[in-house]
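User: Can you recover a sequence for this backbone? Please restate the input before giving your answer.

Assistant: Of course. Working from this structure:
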């Protein structure tokens, strides 16, 4: 039985917080520009697993913060001043929604605050156990548990060794099925004591956590905006609705709970007086503690750009298109091989493709450019065996803080590109390297004290020790890493970032190596940019990061006072297994997507992807070239036997992946060349020169046309960008969900089988009876008595709605 609780939290702020205010009403928020507490997404909490909220993610980073907790039955909370973290734990037996308010006080006066909604998700304790007897007498130095439960992250769950030689790690997991392995001193091995394994070549161990919450939870979707109220449809599951929590989120970060009237199957949210640019978030639970999906929608017509409407394209500059041969350059070095040399794509080449309408036809409205700083012209040897030579063609080795690489066109070419893009309604974000510089950079020459040391106290070199020393490790001996504990480099990097945004009118950054830069840098970075740049812009900026961690780790860098989003690599891993290799099922995909939706929250604009410049190409896996049974290093596969397309029928796998990517929440990203199904193994083979027009095969043209169609469908249907998502069919090889947003309705369905599939789908109440269209093929689809019957051809996706 659900316990009913009241949660009241407050902070006593003694020091000065030099940022803007978010407080208990929108009127108050405009009076005191001294405190900022931004939107906090619905937070997932479970018994036995404390919820740790770094409040600096949301804006609280002043000194001497105290927590005062008023009675909250079944909830305990404490505030860690050193880490600025709010730590919440639950007693057993708690379920459903918990809502409260964080209050900020100074000198016994409330100066700000924000709404906090907790969703209790049942989890169970599981202990991973590894007996070192399985290592044939060799005592391991390190044992890790990795799998679908943590995005295969090798830093999230290390095991601890007992005196008996047994390694253990306790983890709280939601009920469901997980694939996993142990990593023993760097070697991936299946669990020797678990007979349950996958039948594919990966031989992953299988863990089943029983105890799925019984019954059907309620679900909700936005229905109508009326004068002074927003109507949300409420569909109960197996129990009556208990609580409806509606929160208004203002553009300046302020939040306030809204009154809700329940009339039949409608939740009528009173929004009179709420500014139209605000957002409304609604979530419900039932009397058995089951929690609905979260819906979020604007209080009125939005007049500014929203990043939910974006589709990102990474135009990897050197490998995209050569628009000016006068700035061509090749490095002359006897040991440098062509894939690691300059290919002479440039900014003018990208500008030419903008003018030709290439990105318009693709449905792309956000361009991500490779790092813009000048890079060295010579070749440098990697410390990683077999010690190959590389150039800075990619842009990630800056030798100047404010000079645009002349080889790609320089400052004027960048200004022209941004101007032409903006004229066509295309945003431009640039890759920003903050972790390190190249040894030829003047900062390394003139400010050695800004950087860490390469040598560790034990005599080792601190090179690529991603997990052991994540914040201090160097990528290469010639790439000195900053010491982010020092004031001077932090200030210099922030000032330089602001300069790039303002000087070239950029719309945001893709941020490199986020997890290798301390958290406190990121909230200082975002605070400065919010106050000095974003406050002057009509449209919000977008900061998306690269972090290879589990979802919780990814989210530790995301918030209104840190990054807007990161690339969803845990979901990417599942996408590859489901669509590229077909080693996982649609059940795995739904579990992974659901985890992303729960942990990230509706406010977070994560970017889903099918590939990027650090990963082997999708089609290399789909075509069977990877994984290579004789060579585990994918980079070496690219050097020794670069993949080529042999099974042309496998392009359907990429088309299915594209349909999925373009019908889920977030800001989808496509890596150049993936729109034509380019293949390639590890870096730099995954960075081949782009091809266009008559250089493409008929199959590649068909892939490109499919991407263009599903991108156009996404832009035409707000339900795919903003709407509620409900699964209406889920089997291993077939999968379908509906999305609803006010009057827009879309159904998405997949058939991965080699034979046709007939699906009878219950699409009411979202879909009313009548005729609809399969938007990819143009076929007519009927809904009768709330049922939709689809005859889906083999290896095909359908998207059904009104054109």
């Amino acid at each position: 039985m659900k316990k009913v609780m009241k949660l009241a939290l407050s902070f006593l702020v003694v020091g000065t917080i030099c940022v803007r205010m978010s407080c208990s009403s929108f009127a108050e928020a405009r009076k005191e520009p001294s405190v900022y507490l931004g939107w906090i997404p619905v937070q997932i909490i479970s018994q036995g697993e404390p919820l740790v909220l770094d409040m600096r993610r949301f804006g609280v980073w002043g000194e001497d913060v105290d927590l005062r907790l008023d009675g909250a039955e079944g909830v305990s909370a404490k505030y860690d001043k050193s880490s600025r973290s709010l730590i919440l734990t639950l007693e057993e037996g708690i379920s459903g929604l918990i809502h409260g308010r964080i209050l900020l006080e100074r000198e016994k006066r409330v100066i700000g605050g924000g709404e906090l909604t907790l969703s209790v998700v049942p989890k169970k304790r599981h202990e991973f156990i590894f007996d070192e007897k399985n290592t044939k007498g060799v005592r391991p130095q390190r044992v890790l548990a990795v799998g679908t439960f943590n995005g295969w992250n090798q830093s999230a769950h290390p095991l601890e060794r007992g005196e008996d030689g047994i390694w253990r790690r306790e983890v709280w997991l939601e009920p469901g099925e997980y694939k996993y392995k142990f990593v023993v001193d760097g070697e991936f091995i299946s669990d020797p004591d678990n007979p349950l394994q996958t039948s594919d070549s990966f031989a992953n161990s299988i863990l089943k956590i029983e105890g799925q919450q019984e019954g059907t939870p309620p679900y909700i979707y936005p229905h109508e905006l009326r004068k002074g109220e927003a109507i949300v449809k409420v569909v109960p599951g197996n129990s009556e609705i208990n609580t409806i929590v509606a929160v208004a989120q203002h553009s300046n970060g302020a939040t306030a709970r809204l009154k809700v009237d329940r009339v039949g199957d409608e939740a009528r949210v009173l929004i009179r007086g709420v500014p139209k640019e605000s957002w409304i978030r609604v979530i419900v639970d039932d009397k058995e503690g089951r929690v609905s999906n979260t819906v979020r929608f604007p209080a009125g017509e939005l007049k500014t750009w929203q990043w939910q409407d974006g589709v990102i394209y990474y135009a990897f500059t050197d490998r995209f298109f050569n628009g000016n041969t006068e700035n061509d350059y090749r490095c002359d070095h006897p040991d440098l091989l062509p894939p690691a040399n300059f290919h002479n794509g440039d900014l003018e080449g990208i500008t030419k493709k903008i003018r030709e309408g290439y990105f318009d036809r693709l449905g792309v409205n956000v361009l991500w450019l490779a790092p813009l700083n000048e890079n060295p012209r010579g070749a440098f040897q990697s410390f990683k065996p077999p010690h190959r030579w590389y150039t800075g063609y990619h842009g990630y080795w800056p030798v100047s803080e404010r000079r645009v690489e002349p080889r790609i066109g320089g400052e004027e070419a960048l200004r022209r590109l941004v101007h032409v893009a903006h004229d066509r309604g295309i945003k431009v974000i640039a890759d920003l390297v903050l972790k390190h510089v190249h040894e030829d950079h003047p900062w390394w020459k003139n400010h050695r004290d800004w950087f860490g040391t390469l040598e560790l106290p034990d005599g080792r070199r601190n090179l690529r020790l991603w997990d052991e020393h994540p914040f201090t490790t160097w990528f290469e001996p010639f790439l000195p890493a900053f010491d982010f504990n020092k004031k001077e480099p932090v200030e210099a990097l922030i000032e330089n970032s602001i300069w790039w945004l303002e000087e070239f009118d950029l719309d945001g950054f893709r941020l490199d190596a986020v997890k290798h830069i301390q958290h406190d840098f990121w909230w200082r970075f975002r605070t400065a940019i919010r106050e000095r740049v974003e406050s002057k812009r009509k449209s919000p900026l977008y900061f998306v990061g690269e972090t290879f961690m589990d979802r919780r780790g990814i989210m530790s860098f995301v918030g209104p006072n840190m990054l807007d989003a990161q690339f969803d690599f845990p979901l990417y891993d599942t996408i590859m297994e489901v669509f590229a290799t077909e080693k996982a099922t649609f059940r795995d995909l739904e579990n992974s997507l659901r985890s992303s939706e729960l942990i990230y929250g509706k406010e977070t604009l994560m970017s889903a992807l099918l590939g990027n410049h650090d990963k082997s190409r999708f089609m290399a896996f789909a075509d069977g070239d990877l994984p290579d049974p004789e060579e585990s290093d994918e980079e070496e596969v690219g050097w020794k036997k670069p993949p080529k397309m042999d099974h042309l029928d496998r392009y359907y796998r990429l088309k299915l992946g594209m349909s999925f990517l373009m019908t889920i929440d977030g800001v989808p990203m496509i890596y150049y060349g993936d729109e034509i199904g380019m293949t390639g193994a590890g870096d730099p083979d995954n960075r081949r020169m782009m091809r266009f027009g008559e250089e493409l095969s008929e199959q590649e043209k068909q892939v490109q046309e499919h991407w263009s169609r599903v991108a156009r469908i996404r832009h035409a249907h707000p339900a795919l960008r903003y709407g509620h998502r409900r699964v209406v069919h889920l089997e291993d090889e077939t999968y379908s969900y509906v999305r609803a947003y006010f009057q827009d309705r879309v159904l998405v369905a997949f058939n991965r089988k080699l034979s046709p599939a007939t699906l009878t789908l219950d699409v009411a109440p979202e879909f009313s009876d009548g005729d609809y269209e399969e938007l990819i093929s143009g076929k007519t689809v009927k809904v009768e008595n709330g049922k939709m019957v689809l005859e889906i051809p083999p290896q095909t996706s359908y998207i059904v709605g009104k054109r």
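That completes the design. The radius of gyration is 26 Å.
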